[in-house]
Amino acid sequence: MKPLVFAARSLRREFRHGELATLAAALVLAVAALTAVGTLASRVESAILASASELLGGDLGVNAPRAALPDTFSSEAARLGLASSRSVEFSSVVFAGENSQFSEVRAVDTDFPLRGKLVVADAQGTHRERRAPASGEVYVDRAVLAALAAKVGGNLQLGGRDLKISGEIISAPGAAVFQFAPTVLMNRGDAESSGLLGIGSRARYRVLVAGEADAVSDYAEWARAHLPATASISTVADAQANLRTSFERGENFLRLAALLAALLSGIAVALAAQRFSRRKTEEVALLRCLGASRNEIVLALVLELALLALPACALGALLGLGMQQAAFLLASPLLGGFTPPIPPAPATSAFAMGLAVLFGFSMPPLLRLRDVEPMRVFRRDLPARVRRFDALYLLPFVVAALLIVLESGSSNLAGVLAGALLAVAMVTVLMTLLLLRLLRAGGKRVSGAWRFGLANLNRRRALTLIQVGALALSLTALDLLAVVGPSLLERWRADLPVDTPNYFAINLQAGQREDFEQRLVALGADNLSLLPMAAGKLVAINGKPVRASEDEKDSRANNWIEGEVRVSWSATLPPSNRLIEGIWHDDRATGAQLSVDKSWVEIFHLKLGDSMTLRFGDEELTAKINSVREVDWDSFRVNFFMMLDPAHAQALPHSLISSFHLPVQAAGLSTLSRDMPNLSLIDVNSILDRVRDIINRVSAAVTWVLGFSLAAGVLVLLAALAATAEERRFEIALLRTLGAHSRQLNAAVLGEFAALGLLAGLVAASGAAGAGFALARSVFRMPDYWPPFATLGLIALASAIVVMLAGLAGTRRIARTPPMLVLRRGT
Fold first, then answer.
1. Which residues lie below 8 Å from residue 18, measured CB to CB, with a gap of 6+?
2. Mean pLDDT value across residues 615-638
3. Cα separations (Å) of 123 from 147, 669, 672?
4. What pLDDT, in 10s, does the model give residues 406-416?
5. How many CA atoms lie within 13 A of 459 on its CB side?
6. Where are the alpha helices (H) located in 110-212, listed in sequence order?
7. Residue 823 has pLDDT above 60, yes or no
8. Looking at the DSSP assignment, which residues form a beta bridge with residue 312?
């Protein structure tokens, strides 16, 4: 026997049978879904990093507060062939005549920017790409021009020097998304010569580098080993932090859809392989009679599957690459026009995963064919050798677990999905056994053809368990994609309603509050949030002075210890805040009270009753922690990590900060900025637009992947119904011979498949609801999400109807076979 030749002939001869077609289609769908999502995720990540480099102004930054970094940080960059640029940032007041404006000053050298474009508008309003300002010149934000009543070409005073305003900043790499004052960009040499960077200045120093990725990686490793105390490294991953949550959430949605499609395909493969192995039993027995060894038969079966799998996986990879290209073109406007090359790794990984799904889910029933005895040729009723335990049947579970772990990209997603599917499988087995027991005890009370149909479930206990399990798992996956997934996306959209604040106002004074609110109302603004803000310094925790440490695991701790902390106060709990421990401020308390965000509890290891000492100017205030809050930082409202009680905070020097929603760009905002020169307005419309665009495009991409999953679900349904086709064909032929008419046969089938479909649908709906609840809280960070129970209930009923009708349609096709032909052929 030549296994390869025999395998090729068998494949060509048997491909017309439904099992091999199901195997091939399932592989194409699984590989296509995994290729599309994996490649798309990789390219989006590359595009994000590329755009983040322009946002940062370089490929990597080293930051240090108060003291300039040693020259070795520049010389090491040069040694590695990297370009470098030094800058320093500080706060100061700029003047023009009688007008003044508190500003964030960025002093840069002539090499700035290393990445991205510095675009400024000249006196005629023409946008031009420029390098750093020349000595004696500055570029300024529009808010500075408005506050100073100045124009491009005029002068301003900074640090006792007159500087020419050479341009209005349109875009500048390295600018913070949220900053508390408008920007002034100046020459670094002017800042050093003016005395603005003297001892005691609260300046922040930075070295930016750019170049080849390997050299940047080597520089980062060197920099970490030579970082001064309190210094930190900024990477391109940090530069897109404001949008990273949205991209990660979108990627999780896509990975969830692709994983479910692949798992559905695996279930279809397992069912088709089970039927294929039963049909091959007599052929294997005949081959054994003709002298073929067990190893030759197994090798021929494996080669037949391999010959089927290789072109199917290749077709799936090509289909997935085409799909991801369309999806990437759809998403490219979000990524700044960057077009990374198509990486080969995701398609190769998906190809390998496709082979693993095929062999992992199909080998257990096929390898059992080794045990077929030659006597089976003469005695079809000869039972197969029974094993108390066969480790081969653990292989599909191992492959499914590996698929979830390797392709999920998130331990939380992998854990929730694996736990949900395992729970569904266990509950399905228990509920099916309970149903079979109830039918065995009370089935006699059912009369007519329904009794026969329900009795069929007990006669084929093993196949019934397989059918219900496959249907329940596939329906769970489809419920997650078709019902829970869209409801999660709608909940994500609800995070950014139409009236989400799109402007922030900073440095508002208490005496301006009433006028400010009235003018916003006149402009049509709504969803106004306004809170006081005081800037202080964290001095001690529980009476012990706090100091920055190089060993601190979270760099934010050092930033808060070394820099300013901003606190607020309110008599009531602000919107977008939720108490998770303790109580809101108690009016009867004599000492100062403090409410902290849960992230501070984790970073500084705080608990209720701990005390924190803050310094505001020359005064210190010690407050006890009386509550812990969870803050919705995605709400775009005014939020704070720390909030004092009003009784002890009102006397602190403070300004006001506000967020509000303005439906359209109003010309009155410029007037408001001129009339209140101390006010700084921050427009976050571009961020909101990008996040909403991400949601819309993720929804479209998930819909495309859902198409693969629905096709895989149809395959599972067909394979599950075909699992008992041979037995059903013989039974129907026998019943027709005994005089049963079509109405009785249809009633029996309806009863059998209605029970199967209803049980599988109810278990699937419950499993999908539980999985959606867990996914919302542990993966997508939506703590107030609740699955649509009513819709899932209707889907469970619809599933029962679909399974019932599909079973009826399949039975009618079987019933067309002449009974004599079936009985001669036997089972």
1. 272, 718, 722
2. 88
3. 17, 22, 23
4. 766 677 777 88
5. 12
6. 142-148, 188-193
7. no
8. none
